[in-house]
Amino acid sequence: MGDETRMVLTGGHVVDPVNGVNGPADVAIADGRVVAVGRDLPIEPGMTVIEVPRHGVVCPGFIDMHAHLREPGEEHKETVATGVAAAVAGGFTAVACMPNTIPVNDHAGVTRLIQRKAAEAGLARVYPVGAVTKGRDGEQLAEIGELHAAGCVAISDDGRPVANALLMRRALEYASMFDMPVVDHCEDRSLAGDGVAHEGYQGTVLGLRGLPAAAEEMIAARDVVLSGCTGAPVHLAHLSTRGAVRVVRDGKSRGVSVTCEVTPHHLTLTDDRLVGYDTNYKMNPPLREAADIEGLLDGVRDGTVDCIATDHAPHHYDEKGVEFDGAPFGVIGLETAVSVCLDRLVHAGHIPLVRLVELLSVNPASILRVSGGTLGVGVPADITVLAPDLAVTVDPSAFRSLARNTPFGGWVLRGGVAATLVGGRVVYANAQADGAGAFANAMAQVPTPSTAS
Ligand SMILES: [Zn+2]
Ligand SMILES: [Zn+2]
Fold first, then answer.
1. Do residues 3 and 448 lie in contact, with contact meaning Cβ atoms separated by under 8 Å?
2. pLDDT value at position 446?
3. How is domain 61-368 classified at the architecture level of CATH?
4. What is residue 32's DSSP assignment?
């Protein structure tokens, strides 16, 4: 029955930058695909009609191109199933998951296991990212062709940079043969040492060993040079410094095929938060300074920054609940990113909503060469419905994620997710959003993959 479902979302405001749509429109869906977008589409018998709540915005599904789902190997932190549940609750119809699992996703067996878990969960799409090097040990290239054939959409040793420049060059050359980007975690380890916080005034006052901005900027600059000389696409993960944004801007101005992402936490928080040594502010790259936030925002506004990605990094309470020095790096973000961006970027006047859709949907789809990023006729109906004025109070105890390590607990934000559809199926309806009942009813009607025959 599921593939015969026909549905129309009526009365919403559609934002689809690829097709130049930014206004009131209905979206008709059949067999899991978009079949029409326009004003006052005809309602045919048997169609499920969903009235989009007043002021609701219908967007191509958001894609988080940088998340850690922890399976296999660290299922006490997160699983693929809990990760995708968090993703759809946060408005993401797809997530790319980093390969630093146990074992590392450096061969097809791990890639297929992640895909199987994702299919069983049947919520968000999951795009595995393979490792650049075997075991992420920075020594020997992984079987990049095998990873690509198994379905990996990019390669990365994230958590670590590819330190060796020759190896990075080879990785770029091989990956580009398969039309895959290399995603690099920019950090010169010889300079970063055993730092735990941004090297600056605040870290010095608090006695926290420094992670200098230069450690990020040096590898970012190296990667831009290597991308330029190979012609291969490189994507720089979670940039956090104004200097790194300058490096990307300069590369782009010379035609280098470099792209980059920033996280919601680096756009909104500075190292002033470290007073109190709360480990929910410990991540790598670290929270920087106000001038860095300004630099990142400049990049978001002028197009230097291509994507917003969460770097969702779940950790167990017992692991984070130790002294600052000993705690693991990383914070979660899947269930807060959209609200933080709506409040702090769109409502704050930095960017229009259409630009946010580019950052969260159009550009990640294009960089990863995956479907999505558009509501064009014929594409899979992966759709994020926003409630831009919804009052959201971040309540970590209500997260679908297994983890609670968020820096945004208790924040009151304007804007949230009303519903999430993947392949034309309502996979999430927000009970807090006005008029979400129509989405909830549609969700109840459609059989889930595990119950469908
Ligand atoms: Zn990283
Ligand atoms: Zn990461």
1. no
2. 58
3. Alpha-Beta Barrel (3.20)
4. T
Q: Output the CA 10–ligand 2 centroid distance in Å.
A: 38
The CATH number of the domain covering residues in 2-58+379-389+411-445: 2.30.40.10
| 311 a catalytic residue | yes
Distance CA 337, CA 308 (A): 9
Which one from 311, 318, 343, 434 is the annotated catalytic residue? 311
In the reported structure, the alpha carbon of residue 106 is separated from the centroid of ligand 2 by a whole-number distance in angstroms of 16
Domain segments of the chain as ranges: 2-58+379-389+411-445, 61-368
pLDDT in tens, 179-205: 999 999 999 999 999 999 999 999 999
pLDDT at 451: 42
> What's the pLDDT score for residue 4?
53
Half-sphere exposure of 351 (CA within 13 A, CB side): 24
For the chain, helix, strand, coil in percent to 5 are 35, 25, 40
CA of 397 to the centre of ligand 2 (A): 23
Query: What ligand has the least distance to the C-alpha of 162?
Result: 1
Which residues of the chain register pLDDT less than 50? 1-3, 450-453
Question: What residue type is 87 in one-letter code?
Answer: A
Read off the pTM: 0.97
pLDDT tens, position by position, 318-370: 999 999 999 999 999 999 999 999 999 999 999 999 999 999 999 999 999 99
Report the distance separating Cα 72 and Cα 99, nearest Å: 10
Distance 158 CA to ligand 2 centre (A): 5
